[in-house]
Amino acid sequence: MFDVSSFRRQFAFFHHHPDWVYLDNAATMQKPDAVTEAVSRFYQQDNSNVHRGAHQLSQQATAQFEQARQTIAHYIKAQYVHEVIFTSGATAGLNQLAFGLMHTVLKPGDRILLTQLEHHANIVPWQLHCQRYGVIIDVVPLTADRQLDLNAYQQLLALKPKLVSFSHISNVLGHIQPVQQMVALAKAAGAITVVDGAQGVVYQQPDMRQLDCDFYVFSGHKLYGPTGVGVLYGKTQWLEQLTPLCGGGEMIDSVSFVNTTFNNLPFRLEAGTPNIAGVIGLAAAINWLQQYNNKLIIEHKSLLLNAFFQGARQIKGVAILSMPVHNAGIVALNVDGEHPSDVADILNQQQVAVRAGQHCAMPLFDYLALNGAVRVAFAAYNTLDDVNQCLLALEQAVEILTA
Ligand code: PMP
């Protein structure tokens, strides 16, 4: 059995906020003490810039930083450590891809394939460059139960897109996509595959060798790590073809006013001083997380999810958009006829933290013909008490708003 009490005790946040029910986990996760301690230890004891100092302190900071890269590469089972590129988050990773491929691989008239439920971070960067370079974007629609339409996906793959990019888990509905199958189908159609793992990485340890995608991006802060740090994983052959989005120090081999030659991977794609403490904090999060059996965490989260579904279905006037199966622990819902922000406001008054709105997925809400939803997102440190308090607050919201 997963011991949620001892897990939760490792988060100082909950000591500071004993009365809050934190269910905004899809926006960002709370940080265990192991992470906050690693970050402050770096600043208090080890702070120096990396990769450039002649002195021992810089060499030690560099060793820690590169050790963190190894930890992360090992965690995601990358074939080579240099395939882990540090970014400021999933958004930065996707922007690097859209920019970097557009100049080299994607040519006017080419097609790329996205899906109807993508986060704006997996739409806007492509759009910015596609418009300029004449690359066509196709979109995989959803079925009636708001799952990706895999038949339509296969038909769109027949148009031979150069690249397919989709999220591992929907940040609105919580639905887990059949990523393994989708990557295999895209590869069979000859496409470059990009997986937005922003929500996926915390649900399941991503295995790059098994998944075999060309790129996978995620943010540290959704994996118990600090904000402002993320990973762009890519296969060496593809990373080498990316035009760097940022130029500057460390990413070069030689610079003159006539020409610049670039450094090797991973440095070629990491211009400037990186978020050193963030990277060390992210590795600390992964090291800490690895002491837990993820199968038990998944079971615990599905217990919470099922209890929530059961309770919410009994509240008259609550319409649930998410499906309970193949769901990573996120529920989007509405109260009939009420604005999602009004519902979230009442939950806030009851000290239940959720998010309301379109969750950076406007095309999904256009498709659903809704102006938004309330999102309840469970994490491993949530308890059945949290579920019950949220349900009570939801009942009150319905009562107040429909009175
Ligand atoms: N993709 C998905 C599916 C997300 O949930 C998020 C964060 N909400 C992002 C991309 C962007 O992540 P970040 O804001 O950390 O860059």
UniProtKB/TrEMBL annotation:
Q: Which reaction does it catalyse?
A: (sulfur carrier)-H + L-cysteine = (sulfur carrier)-SH + L-alanine
UniProt gene name: csd
Residues crossing the lipid bilayer are: none
| Source domain of life | Bacteria
Q: Which family does it belong to?
A: Belongs to the class-V pyridoxal-phosphate-dependent aminotransferase family. Csd subfamily.
Q: Which UniProt keywords apply?
A: Pyridoxal phosphate, Transferase
Q: Which residues form the Aminotransferase class V domain?
A: 21-389
GO molecular-function term, one example from the UniProt record: cysteine desulfurase activity
Q: What is the lineage of its organism?
A: Bacteria, Pseudomonadati, Pseudomonadota, Gammaproteobacteria, Chromatiales
| One protein family per Pfam | Aminotran_5
Which GO terms fall under biological process for this protein? cysteine metabolic process
Name of the protein this chain belongs to: cysteine desulfurase
Name the cofactor(s) required for activity, per the record: pyridoxal 5'-phosphate
